[in-house]
Amino acid sequence: MSDPDKDAISPSLAAEILAEFEKDWRKALRKSVPVKERMKTPRRAMPQRSAEERNKDFTEVNLGLTAEEAVAEARRCLDCAKPGCVTGCPVSIDIPTFVKLVEAGDFAAAAAKVRQANSLPAVCGRICPQETQCEEKCLLKKASGVAVGIGNLERFVSDYERQSGGAVVPPLPPPTGNKVAIVGAGPAGMTVAGELARLGHKVTIFEALHDAGGVLVYGIPEFRLPKAILVAEVAYLKRLGVEFRMNFVVGRTATIDDLRAEGYEAFFIGSGAGLPNFMKVPGENLVGVYSANEYLTRVNLMRAYDFPRYDTPVFPGRRAAVIGGGNVAMDSVRTAKRLGAEQALIIYRRSRTEMPARVEEVHHAEEEGIEFHFLTVPTRYIGDEHGRVRAMECLRMELGEPDASGRRRPVPVAGSEFTTEVDLVVVAIGQSPNPLIPQTTPGLKVGKWGTIDVDWTTMATSLPGVYAGGDIARGGATVILAMGDARTAAAAMDKRLRQGPGSE
Amino acid sequence: MPRILRRERLVPNIHLLEVEAPEVARKALPGQFVIVMPDDRGERIPLTIADWDRDRGTVTSVFMAVGTTTRKLALIEPGETIPIFAGPLGLPSETGRAGTVLCAGGCFGIAAIHPLVRAFKASGNRVIVLVDVKADYLLYWRDRLAALADEFVVSSRDGLYGGTEFVPRHVREIIERETVDRVVAVGCTYFMSSVSEATRPAGIKTTVSLNPIMVDGTGMCGACRVTVDGQTKFACVDGPDFDGHKVDWAELYARRRSYFDDEIKSLCAWEEERFP
Fold first, then answer.
1. Which residues does chain B have within 8 Å of residue A257's beta carbon, measured at their own beta carbons?
2. d(CA A247, CA A245)
3. Chain A CB within 8 Å of residue B54 CB
4. Which residues contact A179 (CB under 8 A, 6 or more apart)?
5. Which distant-in-sequence residues (6+ apart) come within 8 Å of B7 by Cβ?
6. What is the mean pLDDT of residues A457-482?
């Protein structure tokens, strides 16, 4: 089973977008500024706090556009008849309409437009890799090389919405009486919950941890995604009638079958990639070697950055090494720097070009004084007499032929071993799907890597009425792809609840 | 939020907590644990389930007040609530028919072996209970365990209960005296490793309930990794029960001591705030 082509937009959506495109105000707005002038306008850079100031605290790095900047940025959009940006968006936001509403100064309407397709706009406006999605397909990018700052605008309108009293709850249809259980209050689960609650279903989210948000709360640091945003999104879902059952570990506190016996008719499993991978090299269990999940959970969810006011500790580290080149590695290394590490290093086995982290994150990390060591891989950790890590042995790599992922494969350079002192190591080389639900749900088909098998057109699993999406189905992807899965699943679940099994 | 129904000091420094948690009670099995957080600024810690009442919907744990979290728990009064009492977590213990089973508990483990003793007895085993206390006045649940067990032995550094030596001598005496088919040990790391060393020469299957530091308790973070038979395992989802003869005890000791300095710092900060 493969991921379907998310680039294709449905005919009904295309018709909706076209109808908006042809409205009189849009036509007038298009004519109001010559295309040449729109194209000449430079992109507004995201205002941010200085690196020297921000690398010592956990306050957000990016400050957001002002209203004037947002309108000016929106004016750059050429309002194409066939907008590529929408095809690049995994949740198919009507981007031109929301951008033009910003240009027209109707920020509330713009926010509402985004929210139609995206239940977590303030989150996605901050952490989506827009540069490889909507902005990659922007006509302006093809024409002038610099796309419209769609992500920055999404962030702007959602912040505007939150600061002006929060999202307005749409009129809700009469309750359908259908009970839906969602496993995991992460981006996928919260999206399904919002979609189905708006359609009148009774939705309960079961969450193993004590705060909602999944990876958004335990993984992504405050300096990139303030917790207040999640708090607002959870409050909105509650206003829609969604019930949250926290500290409820589905699989242990109750199984899917138990919940079915309690009257839940449809299920969505969004339990995420909660199983950290290790390299299985000697010394990996020394004290001071963390998985990125543990390190970030301690700091973000448990607020170890405010120890001892909060009870959970974390090692500050003087010379911290983070193994990996993805966004989680960037989050970890920038966290280490903020917790006082004199040197915070990225150790990555390939070169800069192969790094999976977003360019913006790498750039921010560099500004903050993070050292990058490419083509390097740890082979062994060395402990002191207390079993605490004090050094690591590494090997230099060179790039060989491309592998299955299309990236050039790192090959060890013989005799290049060297040892370097470190007192904190964070292993950020990826996660695997959490096995708890697959292990405790008889009949649920699981793929080779522990992911739950789904039909990608509906996100249905091998069990009737049970759907899954996000990292538990993909094995490690992005927040927005999880949300795209969630939208697909919600549509299929709604259909099944209304029309019976087989209709989806 | 889970409500505390009972909080009682059993013996100095060892407390019992009975919590209203019907969903945990409904599913609890011997050997499982809960993750507890005492207040909104607290730390998440695992506590072994010592008893449950499915009808009343309650779960009981016994813990020793050593760090900030357990001291906070030790001050909770009935009627108060705590933000987290999540579970039951971990794989249940294997408590089938084995023949003669020796259940050894020390410290909080005296309570933690209680469901195991009950289950082994229900499976038709001869069950010998061996509890270890530093001093006679630290013994609790004597009647409760003695009533379940076929034989009840106390190992104490005081003389009142007959012995003056630490638990390995008692283990050796028992396994030399009669055929023991299985041993389970629950208590502090030193206690469990000592029991395991005592049974190693005879090769008696010895199961220990490991107690590493945990954060989420659901396999997500890997804080609780332990090396067993050369393989890294997560105690929260692969355990907490493991073969005591295959555990890398030195590593577990070191990992449990990870935050020794911070634990003191945390305790001092809390004491200053709580008892100004």
1. none
2. 7
3. no
4. A201, A202, A204, A263, A264, A265
5. B15, B16, B17, B18, B73, B74, B76, B77, B78
6. 94
Q: Which of B271, B257, B15, B210 is nearest to A313 (CA)?
A: B257
Chain B 210-229, CB below 8 Å of chain A: which residues? 215-216, 218-223, 225-227
Report CB contact under 8 Å: A311, B69. yes
Residue with tokens 């929210």: A115
A278 part of contact set with chain B, CB < 8 Å: yes
Considering only CA atoms, which of B143, B147, B204, B150 is closest in space to residue B172? B204
Distance CA B192, CA B248 (A): 12
CA B164, B169, B175, B180 torsion-angle sign: positive
Interchain pair B86, A386: CB under 8 A = no
Whole-structure pTM over 0.90, yes or no? yes
Contact assessment for residue A358 and residue A389, using Cβ atoms and an 8 Å cutoff: no
Q: Which residues of B touch A310 (CB under 8 A)?
A: 41-42
User: Across-strand partners of B243?
Assistant: B207
Please determine, for residue A347, whether its predicted confidence score (pLDDT) is greater than 70: yes
Q: B24 in contact with A at a CB cutoff of 8 Å?
A: yes
The residue among A54, A98, A49, A53 whose CA lies nearest residue A73 is A98
Supply φ then ψ for residue B70, to 5 degrees.
-70, -30
State how far the Cα of B182 lies from the Cα of B195, in Å rounded to an integer: 12
Chain A CA closest to residue B254? A387
Q: Which of A159, A168, A154, A303 has its CA nearest to residue A229?
A: A159
Alpha-carbon Rg for chain A, nearest whole angstrom, is 23
pLDDT for residue A12 is more than 70: yes
Are the beta carbons of B37 and A388 separated by less than 8 Å?
no
pLDDT tens per residue across span B247-259: 999 999 999 999 9
Residue A110: phi, psi to the nearest 5?
A: -60, -45
Query: What is the per-residue pLDDT for A468?
Result: 97
- For A157-176, the pLDDT digits (tens) are 999 999 998 888 889 999 99
ipTM: 0.95
Residues in chain A closer than 8 A to B255 (CB atoms): 285, 287, 387
Closest to A54 (Cα-Cα) out of A298, A290, A221, A227: A221
Q: What is the pLDDT of residues A254-297, one digit of tens each?
A: 999 999 999 999 999 999 988 899 999 999 999 999 999 999 99
Across A407-421, b (16+ Cβ under 10 Å) vs e yields: ebbbeeeeeeeeeee
Average pLDDT score over residue span A329-354: 96
CB atoms within 10 A of CB B32: 25
